[in-house]
């Protein structure tokens, strides 16, 4: 890794308004890193995972699953945003996909921050423009910040909670002042903020769903759309940022089109018919059996397995602990014994998956073994407030022999349920005090691929007297119900970064449990988790961050908020053979990304082979 390349300056006059930090050492840099390591120097020309000479042109067709959309504003709760709407807007910075925690200037040319990290100045590029040619100014950044916090999705209020003041430093600079310097990631979180046009929204309502695409500054603009069918974007030939180092080799297609399908089964058939060009396959059965066709055997499209770094999301059955039936930790632990992963993996997944055992799996952040060192010291401070198992047992989900006979596991489940005050009466599990039957609903989208793997779980629950039903609803209703926490159980995938920080408040805190549209679907309301999140955010170095993250992971695991399912350490890519892409994919990014380009020679050869087999 190359040495950090930054410019150290001492501020004398150019300090935040009202600041007392005039004599403090301040770092002014082209990049922000959580703990100081920056791979690319100020004069870098492109990211290593792109082809800087990739040709521009051609069309790529991607797919999305959903019934429709009714807005191109993805920043508010109202409406269902169109696929790809984020392409319309540039952000202050962009994260490198081959580093875990570094962002480089996009709309911002450089960033200034003192050693105590109590404020940050974003200096905008003078050439930055909206796509109507008007300059991006400090007023636009301030308006965006205020509007997102006041009228945007609730997560913005959580993310920006520690910002106490935002000020215009000059026409091309904005200063954000923080409560303190403990939230180390806050400056980078602000860098992810899209910059919206104050002038445009002076005559357009921000907080309403609209099929008029807002004015943006991104590499694409809306070309056309058919609600429920397609949405098409075209590359901006005069895009102001096309030659920036962070953009070279990216955004190579002239046209990017999304095709809508009501479910993944229909989308698979659409791919094989050639209706769109590339997809990541998440269903093991489809990967193993679904792609065999004359076109595949003729090499018109290909399958590839691509290793992926980074944290693997914890996917699983999520309890809504706001429901009294799931309020007891022993009940939540008990139901986990009804999920037979070994049989499911063998029967449905061809043995391709691994069992999830951490919210931060596949990374150094995951809690493993018994706590020790710094993590143990942290947890000992909460010894009277957390389960004894945190210190005495290694967390492992229940296991089976894969035969489908989980009688012993179900016996253990009944023991936990009895301890929690539930008993089987006339074949039904009922509450000992109220006689209330144990029944709940598992909310999924209609035609979800998870239906077939949820049904055996439901049948196993039935064997211990629990009545569980599967409820499939359309995408809009599903989204609305999750936003309002109107469900008993659902399936979630808790994605995480290699540098967890501010966003953890939205996942695990008591405040987020009471905030509609938060990521805390499970309703975690644990004072210990609240404190660990704040300590994690304030971690002064990577070593401390890891210790607090592991402690939080362990507390959450033993809280049994999710019944862990499984993950795949690889990305399974299928694509029609008319594109090229860099040999090395970004370590922490998706295999389907914006570094691909249209390869005319491959496209011509593909059409020739199609003609030869009569397609």
Describe it.
By secondary structure, the protein is an alpha+beta fold. Helix content is 26%, strand content 22%. The chain has 19 helices and 27 strands. The strands form eight sheets. It has a six-stranded antiparallel β-sheet. Helix 10 crosses helix 18. It is globular and about 75 Å long. The model is unreliable at 1-23 (pLDDT under 50).
How would you describe this structure in keywords?
19 helices, alpha+beta, six-stranded antiparallel beta sheet, Dipeptide-binding Protein, domain 3, disordered N terminus, D-Maltodextrin-Binding Protein, domain 2, 615 residues
Binned strand content: 15-25%
By secondary-structure content and strand pairing, the structural class works out as: alpha+beta
- Give the biggest beta sheet: 6 strands, antiparallel
Count of beta strands = 27
Catalogue the unreliable spans. Answer: 1-23
From the structure provided, what is the oligomeric state, counting identical versus distinct chains?
A: single chain
Q: Domains counted in the coordinates: how many?
A: 3
């Amino acid at each position: 890794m190359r040495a950090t390349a930054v410019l150290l300056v001492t501020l004398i006059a150019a300090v935040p308004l009202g600041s007392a930090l005039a004599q403090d050492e301040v770092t002014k840099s082209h990049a922000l890193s959580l703990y100081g390591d920056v791979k690319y120097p100020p004069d870098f020309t492109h990211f290593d995972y792109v082809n800087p000479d990739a040709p521009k042109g051609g069309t790529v067709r991607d797919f999305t699953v959903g019934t429709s959309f009714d807005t191109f504003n993805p920043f508010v709760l109202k409406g269902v945003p169109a696929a790809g709407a984020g392409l319309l807007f540039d952000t202050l910075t962009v994260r490198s996909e081959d580093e875990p925690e570094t962002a480089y200037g996009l709309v911002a040319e450089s960033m200034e921050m003192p050693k105590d990290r109590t404020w940050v100045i974003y200096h905008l590029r003078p050439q930055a423009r909206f796509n109507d040619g008007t300059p991006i100014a400090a007023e636009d950044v301030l308006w965006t910040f205020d509007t997102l916090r006041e009228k945007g999705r609730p997560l913005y209020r959580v993310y920006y909670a520690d910002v106490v003041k935002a000020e215009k430093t000059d026409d091309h600079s904005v200063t954000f002042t923080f409560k303190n310097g403990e939230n180390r990631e806050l400056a980078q979180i602000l860098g992810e903020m899209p910059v919206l046009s104050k002038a445009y929204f002076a005559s357009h309502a921000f907080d309403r769903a609209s099929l008029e695409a807002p004015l943006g500054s991104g590499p694409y603009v809306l070309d056309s759309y058919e609600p429920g069918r397609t949405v098409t974007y075209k590359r901006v030939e005069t895009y102001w940022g096309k030659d920036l180092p962070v953009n070279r080799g990216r955004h190579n297609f002239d046209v990017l089109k999304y095709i809508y399908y009501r479910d993944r089964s229909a989308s698979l058939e659409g791919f094989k018919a050639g209706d769109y060009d590339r997809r990541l396959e998440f269903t093991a059965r489809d990967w193993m059996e679904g792609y065999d066709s004359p076109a595949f055997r003729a090499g018109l499209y290909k399958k590839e397995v691509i290793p992926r770094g980074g944290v693997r999301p914890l996917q699983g059955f999520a309890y809504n602990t706001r429901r009294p039936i799931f309020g007891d930790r022993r009940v939540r632990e008990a139901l986990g014994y009804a999920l037979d992963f070994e049989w499911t993996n063998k029967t449905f997944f061809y043995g391709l998956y691994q069992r999830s055992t951490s919210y931060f799996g596949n990374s150094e952040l995951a809690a493993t073994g018994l706590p020790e060192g710094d993590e143990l010291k942290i947890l000992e401070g909460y010894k009277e407030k957390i389960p004894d198992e945190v210190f005495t047992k290694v967390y492992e989900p229940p296991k089976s022999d894969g035969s489908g006979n989980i009688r012993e596991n179900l016996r253990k489940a009944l023991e936990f349920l009895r301890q929690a005050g539930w008993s089987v009466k006339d074949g039904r599990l009922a509450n000992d005090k109220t006689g209330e039957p144990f029944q709940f609903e598992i909310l999924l989208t209609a035609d979800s691929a998870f239906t077939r793997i949820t049904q055996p779980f439901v049948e196993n629950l039935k064997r211990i007297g629990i009545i569980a039903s599967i409820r499939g609803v359309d995408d809009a209703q599903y989204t609305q119900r999750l936003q309002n926490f109107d469900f008993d159980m659902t399936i979630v995938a808790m994605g995480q970064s290699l540098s967890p920080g501010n966003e953890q408040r939205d996942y695990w805190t008591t405040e987020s449990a009471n905030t509609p549209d938060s990521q805390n679907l499970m309703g975690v309301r644990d004072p210990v988790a609240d404190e660990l999140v704040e300590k994690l955010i304030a971690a002064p170095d990577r070593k401390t961050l890891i210790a607090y993250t592991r402690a939080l992971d362990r507390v959450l695991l033993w809280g049994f908020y999710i019944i862990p399912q499984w993950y795949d350490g690889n990305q399974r890519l299928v694509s029609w053979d008319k594109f090229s892409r860099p040999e090395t994919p970004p370590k922490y990014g998706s295999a389907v990304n914006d570094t691909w380009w249209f390869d005319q020679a491959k496209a011509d050869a593909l059409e020739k082979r199609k003609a030869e087999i009569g397609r």
